[in-house]
Amino acid sequence: MPGTVVTRSAVHGGAELTTTVVIGSGLPGLAVASELSRRGIHSIVVECLDPVDTGQLSRTALTDSVSLSERTELLRLLRGYASSHSLDIRHSTLAENLCVVGHSKLLPAPILGAKKWAVQTDCGVLLADHVVLTKYPQNQLRRFLLSLGLAVGHDLKSATQAIGLHLVGVGELLSPTTREIVRQAKLVSTAIVQHPPLLVPTRAISV
Q1: What is the rounded distance in angstroms from the CA atom of residue 169 to the CA atom of residue 173?
Q2: pLDDT value at position 123?
Q3: Total structural domains in the chain?
Q4: Nearest CA to 7 among 43, 33, 31, 46?
Q5: What is the pLDDT of the chain when averaged over all its residues?
């Protein structure tokens, strides 16, 4: 439901339930988790299998010392916020697969209940209403969306948001700047608070 506030995760039927799972604990992931926390929304942040997902920006984005300094300072602040507010950041947990509720390879549908997404990790299954991706190849993501019968077009983020799958720092030709990441994190957090998913997809995607 829009505006539902969840302050902690719960275990149900062998799976852990939460409002949002953020995949990637770098700068984009921490920015989203912090924004959600400020709005009273609990999230679980897990690592992406891609070891590059450390929050580093590409060389194209770090064009000067000011950009690098800005990013470094923001990371420091976000890590400090995560620590002081006990955000659920799981650096040792790797996301392995992402699929929808009722996908039999993870858990039987009756256990999944009302949650829309299931994230398979090396430590178990996380069930969530929303998933935030902070690192994923754009071409693979488009193929996944097309397999769901979604008309992706040029607005990739709107297509994914409609199914409760949110993108921060993903789908860009160049790595976004620090300020752009913050802007995207705020927009995604607002969407999660105000708008529930409208469409339930039926297939799985490897993370």
Answers
A1: 10
A2: 92
A3: 1
A4: 43
A5: 77
